[in-house]
Design brief:
Blueprint: H1 13-22, H2 39-46, E1 60-64, E2 67-71, E3 78-80, H3 85-91, E4 98-101, H4 121-124, E5 130-134, H5 142-147, E6 152-155, H6 162-171, E7 174-176, H7 189-199, H8 203-223, E8 231-238, E9 241-244, H9 250-257, E10 261-262, H10 265-270, E11 290-294, H11 297-304, H12 307-310, H13 313-316, E12 320-323, H14 331-337, H15 342-356
Parallel strand pairs: 3-6, 4-5, 6-7, 8-10, 8-11, 11-12
Antiparallel strand pairs: 1-2, 8-9
Helix pairs in contact: 7-8, 8-15, 14-15
């Protein structure tokens, strides 16, 4: 999908992820073709230098979808190839030198929006990682990654295939998505977090951070027992259609995590994917008690004008939480990222949104 040269493209990273997930384009490689300026030097100039590795236990061996990877010692130069893996790495005390541009900036915009979310801004500080892939690309920029001289590559929340993994692992030890994950983006956020933590020698710390978020979800359930009696769904307006997320997607898991009962009929027609688009005759699938809409303003207004949506009882009764994606408080982005850093923010804002409508 071509990157749109408008400010609105910030709000569409998950759409680009849809396109990338459905793309059959082969992943190209220009591994050590003429490098020009050294991105590693550039990354260090933008930051306070290579950050000390966070304390951990090594060596560790991580089993994943593409095999096993041994990490001999604490990595100092981590490149994140998964869309949100950088946030798990940050949460565990290491600043990646390379990352994916989840929400591509409009031309000339600085600093990168992906380092400025409310839940990551303080963690990044003045560090400006090198962008090694933008959402919608058919694959990472192998030349850039190689020039960054990584000692570990994390590709967990990612749709890379075996061929891409093989190319990355020639550059540095690479950890792919979890072994149990049948489809990209389908693993529970907890599994992804602990998986990445293990690669950093901090499996116990990762489990501790996960427990903190699960405790926060449990607290929300206890504070709002009325949620358990309500059916719910999370969706976006995508290509002129309502596109609900499945119960196993991170957005669906967050909705159920706070106590709501998800509309699991969506899972059956999604065919293992993390979302589906509804034909007009299947709008009954989102006839639920509570709807969470994740879009920015323009798409939200388009959805509101869609008659079949406007006629749903939940809409007529004002039981819809319209959650801005990258605009405003960026609640949708926090939900969509579903990381150790974004989830505490997302939980608070999700619960708050229910009380406002």
């Amino acid at each position: 999908m071509l990157l749109q040269q408008t400010a609105r493209m910030n709000s569409r990273w998950w759409r680009r992820r849809l396109a990338a997930a459905l793309s059959a384009a082969a992943l190209g490689v220009g591994l050590l073709a003429g490098c020009g300026s050294d991105p590693a030097d550039k990354a260090d100039r933008k930051s306070d230098g290579t950050a000390p590795a966070a304390a951990g236990t090594f060596p560790v061996t991580v089993d994943h979808a593409f095999g096993s990877t041994k990490v001999a010692k604490a990595p100092r130069r981590v490149v994140s190839v998964g869309y949100t893996d950088d946030q798990a790495v940050l949460a565990l005390g290491t600043k990646p030198v390379g990352m994916v541009d989840q929400y591509p900036n409009p031309p000339g915009t600085s600093p990168d929006v992906n380092t400025q979310w409310p839940w990551v801004k303080d963690k990044w500080g003045d560090t400006r990682p090198e962008v090694v892939m933008s959402n919608g690309d058919t694959g990472p920029n192998y030349e850039k990654i190689a020039a960054l001289r990584p000692d570990l590559i994390i590709a967990v929340y990612s749709e890379i295939d075996q061929a891409a993994y093989d190319k990355l692992s020639k550059i540095a030890p690479t950890v792919g998505r979890t072994k149990a994950e049948k489809e990209p983006f389908s693993a529970p956020w907890q599994d992804n977090a602990v998986h990445i933590a293990k690669a950093l020698g901090q499996e116990a710390k990762g489990a501790e951070l996960v427990k903190g978020i699960e405790d926060k979800l449990d607290a929300a359930k206890k504070a709002h027992p009325e949620f358990a009696n309500q059916t719910a769904v999370a969706l976006s307006w995508y290509k002129d259609a309502a596109a609900p997320f499945t119960s196993t997607d991170v957005r669906g898991r967050l909705v159920t995590g706070t106590g709501f009962t998800y509309q699991t009929e969506i899972d059956k027609i999604a065919g293992g994917k993390f979302y589906t688009t509804l034909s007009p005759e299947r709008m009954d699938l989102i006839d639920v008690d509570r709807i969470f809409v994740i879009n920015d303003k323009a798409d939200t207004e388009a959805l509101k004008k869609f008659e079949l949506f406007a006629n749903l009882p939940a809409v007529k009764n004002g039981k819809v939480s319209y959650l801005l994606d990258s605009e405003g408080p960026a609640v949708g982005a926090a939900m969509s990222q579903g990381t150790l850093l974004s989830l505490p923010y997302a939980i608070d804002e999700l619960v708050k949104s229910v009380g406002q409508v």
